[in-house]
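Archive entry. Fields below.
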Amino acid sequence: MQTAQRILRGYRRRRLIVCIALAVLALLLTLSARYVAERNINEQRVLAFNQRVIGTLENILIPLEQANKDIVPLVGIPCQAAQLKMSEYAARLQTVRSIGLIKDDILYCSSIFGSRAVPVNLLQPRLPSALPLLFLTIDHSLLKGSPILLSWIPSANSSHDGVMQIINIELLTGLILEPERPWVSRAVLNVADSHLEYGKGLLQQISVEAGMVSHQIASERFAFSVMTIGPSPGALALSNLPTQLPLALILSMLIGYITWLATANRMSFSWEINVGLASREFEVFCQPLVSARNLQCVGVELLLRWNNPRQGWISPDVFIPLAEQQNLIAPLTRFVLEETVSYLDIFPKSRDFHIGLNVAASHFHEGEIIADLRRSWFPAHAPQKLTLELTERDALPDVDHRVVRDLQSMGVELAIDDFGTGQSSLAYLETLNPNVLKIDKSFTAAIGTDAVNSTVTDIIIALAQRLGIDLVAEGVETPQQADYLRSHGVNVLQGYLYARPMPLSEFPRWLRGNNMPPPRHNGHPIPVIPLR
Ligand code: C2E
Ligand code: CA
Ligand code: CA
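PREDICTED_STRUCTURE:
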């Protein structure tokens, strides 16, 4: 059995699940976004490092090209005549440690030592060469053993002649190859097949440790490249992720909270009722009321049914109290009214035929019910009599008796429903002056038993008769109950014994089956509605 609490708990649980799911999604998205952004930043840092090194080295080598052009013509000129120009160049270029002129394989002039006569291949085995060369090697003349970058330009006439420039690369790399942690842990300058690593000097081979990645960029202008080794940008971003966690958590909690607020309407029972109304999930049923004397149908009670596609059939005992709590009872009553008006033709066109509409006490507030009846019931000019059923469990004392009076003056009757089950106060029988009392089904069920309720049934019947109020007994299920009620002067009966609630569209068929010719007395039909 569905209970209101279970349904409400279900909504709250679903709402909570949606909020938590969105919060977790927000957390994951924030962290992923941060991860991707950090990884890109890390990649950019490595790229920028490599480009900076390339750029700096290119800027050093470009003036050397010009110097080579100016100095190559000096090859062959006596050292005294050439040395001054060479040392001027070396001084201007700053990065150049020394310049040497080679003629017939002999280094015959140095910008530092002046005239010399050393076979160049003793100092540098790769020289002389017919092709221009740029390579890393070890200094064998000035700062012996220190790494140098050597540029060789052969002269146009002979491969045995040329100019060599020695660049003080150790000092330079100390400045430009300094690692930039945590992105770059090692930086290496590659020239031809040799490598100069920051802090390690010249190496023949570079190995990359496990877990590290290398990144290499080559100069487009000169024959060298720069390689950096460091943690992978992704791994670095991942290790940095915990620092992003507090902010991401705050954001996700905020999103969860906003979702909670935003779903207050959408994921609630009231939202569901509104959707149900809009998508016609509600249906109006009716249950016949029969005359105790001749079993003729003297009216119907309109009962709402809800076929909720998500929850299945929901009993009105569940959704009516919830709708009342959420101030949605009036729209539901309006729906019942409008449906009934559109089906008016199915009911016997007689003023003696009662159409019972269940109305909540709150709907009487400020005459709201009158406004609704003016909108749909009165314009239909229904020949039948409308009876508003007010349940006694509602806040009856709050019902404005002037509204009831106005309704009665418009021909609308008032019935007190479930009479005897609430905080029965006889005072409002006087103030509200109801036309009908509906004996609750619990009292009908007590008939024939020796329960206290069976005594109460007798008292209610006697009370109504004393006050001249019509009686309708609900929940008549057995012929014994019907006999008892009939013999005690209850003139209208309602219950499964006669008919269960049915869709409005089925009522005409039921009515045809039920309509036996009315009993006659001395040739006159016996009235089906009790006469007062
Ligand atoms: P109620 O006004 O007392 O309606 C009579 C209830 O008794 C109906 O239950 C009906 O199906 C049931 N009933 C009829 N004959 C028998 C019988 O012989 N035995 C038993 N055991 N039950 C019988 P239902 O349709 O489930 O409605 C429950 C309650 O929901 C209604 O009680 C009424 O208070 C409320 N309700 C239903 N429709 C509306 C509506 O349109 N507006 C408002 N405000 N309340 C409604
Ligand atoms: Ca009722
Ligand atoms: Ca009732």
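CURATOR_NOTE: The longest helix spans residues 4-71.
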